[in-house]
Amino acid sequence: MNLAGKIESLLFVASRPMSFRKMAELLGVEVGEVKAAVEELKKEYNTEQRGIQLAQHAGSIQLVTSALNAKVVADFLKEERSGELTRPALETLTIIAYRGPLPKAEIDMIRGVNCALILRHLLIRGLISGREERERMATVYEISFDFLRHLGLRDVRELPEYEQLHSDQRLEQILRPSPPAQPPTEASTHVSAETTRTSADTSESPKDMTT
Prior knowledge:
Blueprint (H helix, E strand, L loop, with lengths): L2 H11 L4 E2 H8 L3 H15 L6 E6 L2 E6 L4 H13 L4 H13 L2 E2 H8 L4 H9 L3 E6 L4 E6 L1 H7 L10 H6 L2 H6 L10 H25 L1
Antiparallel strand pairs: 1-3, 2-3, 4-6, 5-6
Helix pairs in contact: 1-3, 2-3, 5-7
């Protein structure tokens, strides 16, 4: 796939604006090549016929909805904010609350799925926030002040069993319990019986040789 297509994919899954430098680093190309590819994408996206536009500001770019569709988007977001959270969204929010701040890659690893859309949904609802962390060179997510205020908490450490779940593996075990052990099949039982008989015959052989 060409460079413009790769940039398009990154912008689609990103939950916040991406800098030219960051994309160049991820794609292994020069910043100038990224800028040239972005200009190609602008010609394709930034027309009145497209519902998605490419916005650029302060050295960063992001896919945004067209201003012409502002009303329908606002109505949708209002419904999204007022509706109940899905189970996957609650699981992701729990992970961030007890293990945050942490990057998307670690959230994906704990849940075993790509959480890009769920993170975007939680950001829209104001339950989490994202910030760039230079040490990890990635966006890390943590719960927001709105989340704390909604639960009547002064600090995230006031969550039930926070200290224990923040530091050990129990959170993964709760969210992703191990599958129940499968009962032995007829074939495995037969093999086990044969192995037992063979072992018994072998243990008796020295006795037979002395008689």
